[in-house]
Design goal:
The chain is mainly beta and about 180 residues long. Helix content is about 10%, strand content about 40%. It has one helix and 16 strands. The strands form four sheets. Strands 1, 4, 5, 8, 10, 11, 14 and 15 form an eight-stranded antiparallel sheet that branches. Strands 12-13-9-16 form a four-stranded antiparallel sheet, with no helix packed on it. A two-stranded antiparallel sheet has the order 2-7. This is DUF4402 domain-containing protein. Keywords: Signal. InterPro entries: DUF4402.
């Protein structure tokens, strides 16, 4: 039987060819591409109060009642409250944002308190309602969600209801409520 001796030079050359083939193959199948990064910096939203929510003069009756001012500045009353003139107006806010952008306009709380000047009594403000100009309502259950129209200026009118107690103590009642607008 004839034995073959391994030639170290041939063996190294063969291993080198195998190693080159193994390390070169994946590189032939590698591929790369570039992704883009995009963003738009927009101006912050602005919201400025132009008019207060005013319920006018009221007379409390012997039974409790409620007075509502609509976003169109129309006043109605129920129960024992009597309307007695005075200045009536919905609150009005002017806003600015990037046209076409989606925004949420809302009051973060459902109720607010009016306090009698000099103390001694309060009334509750509730059920704020709003109408807007140059805000496109997104509808479909998206309460308070809008798209800003061109040129980016918009107006929001806010009405609400106050609860007047039976024999409510006369005086000037004052309170505040918050409105916010935010991109989403």
């Amino acid at each position: 039987m004839k034995t073959r001796s391994l030639n170290p030079a041939k063996l190294l050359a063969g291993l080198f060819i195998v190693l080159v083939a193994l390390t070169s193959a994946p590189a032939a199948y590698a591929e790369s591409t570039n992704g883009q990064v995009k963003t738009t910096l927009i101006n912050p939203l602005a919201l400025v109060k132009n008019a207060d929510l005013k319920f006018g003069n009221l007379i409390a009756g012997t039974i409790a009642g409620a007075v509502t001012v609509s976003p169109a500045s129309v006043r109605t009353s129920t129960g024992g409250v009597v309307q007695a003139g005075g200045t009536i107006s919905a609150a009005r806010f002017q806003g600015f944002g990037l046209p076409g952008t989606r925004v949420r306009v809302r009051s973060p709380s459902g109720t607010y308190t009016l306090t009698r000047s000099g103390g001694g009594a309060t009334m509750r403000l509730r059920d704020l309602t709003m109408e807007a100009d140059n805000l496109i309502d997104l509808g479909r259950g998206n309460s308070g969600q809008f798209r800003i129209g061109v040129p980016g200026l918009f107006t929001v009118r806010v009405g609400g209801t106050i609860d007047v107690g039976a024999n409510q103590l006369p005086g000037n009642y004052v309170g505040t409520f918050e409105m916010e607008v935010q991109y989403f």
